[in-house]
Design goal:
Blueprint (H helix, E strand, L loop, with lengths): L2 H15 L1 H11 L14 H15 L3 H20 L1 H6 L4 H14 L11 E6 L4 E8 L5 H14 L4 E8 L6 E9 L1
Antiparallel strand pairs: 1-2, 2-4, 3-4
Helix pairs in contact: 1-2, 1-3, 1-4, 2-3, 3-4, 4-7
The structure holds protoporphyrin IX containing FE.
């Protein structure tokens, strides 16, 4: 994945636990320390190793580390570096999620050959909403959970995740989030 993702993970650890802790995470991960140039694409294994090392170092599950990272990505990284893109993509959570594929498309000339996720939103009745997440990658569903929580906070939207259902797929990952919006 692009270095902007690895860098964001590093920033989260430094901001929350300090530089010393980050050095321990990096050492534990075995990842080279030149894996953090925002606009360079790196092997996905680098990102996965960093996330796993974070979890091990903090003695938490990988899914908890990925969830925290999702919140951090929305609240800190993109809010600081890409606020204008975010604002252009919608002023409430559902419009934003409907525009997210466009947002990722629009930046594909900056992040060449990247492989962003795909989202589909289906509004049911009584504030029930289904959000389908499709990825070429495996294992990032908890990251998306954190992203959704971060977005709900950003838009001051109360949101409860009712169910997270993995869907059958030949490659990558497909997950249906059933949520209720307040
Ligand atoms: C302007 C803000 C954003 C930028 C610049 C951005 C950029 C990126 C980049 C560079 C990647 C790595 C893909 C790769 O290297 O192949 C990525 C992945 C991803 N993005 Fe975004 N993104 C933004 C906002 C969001 C938001 C708000 C969400 C919330 C749902 C999101 C969901 C994801 C997910 C889930 C992935 C992981 C890839 C996967 O699932 O396979 N992004 N994005």
């Amino acid at each position: 994945m692009y270095g902007v993702i690895n860098k964001s993970l590093r920033d989260m650890v430094v901001e929350q636990f300090g530089d010393g802790k980050w050095q321990e995470v990096l050492l534990r991960s075995g990842v080279p320390d030149d894996s953090f140039l925002a606009m360079q694409s790196y092997d996905d294994d680098i990102t996965y190793s960093l996330a796993q090392a974070c979890a091990d170092e903090m003695d938490i599950d990988l899914s908890d580390a990925l969830r925290a990272f999702g919140v951090h990505w929305v609240e800190n990284t993109v809010a600081r570096q890409y606020e204008s893109l975010l604002q252009a993509a919608g002023s409430d959570m559902l419009s934003f999620l409907r525009n997210l594929n466009n947002l990722h498309d629009r930046i594909s000339s900056t992040f060449l050959n990247y492989r962003p996720p795909n989202f589909r939103v289906h509004e049911g009745n009584e504030n029930n909403v289904e959000i389908l997440y499709l990825s070429e990658r495996i294992g990032l569903t908890p990251f998306v959970e954190g992203l959704l929580q971060g977005l709900a906070q950003r838009f001051n939207q109360s949101m409860e995740i009712l169910e997270i259902e993995p869907q059958a797929v030949n490659a990558g990952e497909k997950t249906l989030f059933k949520v209720r919006m307040g």
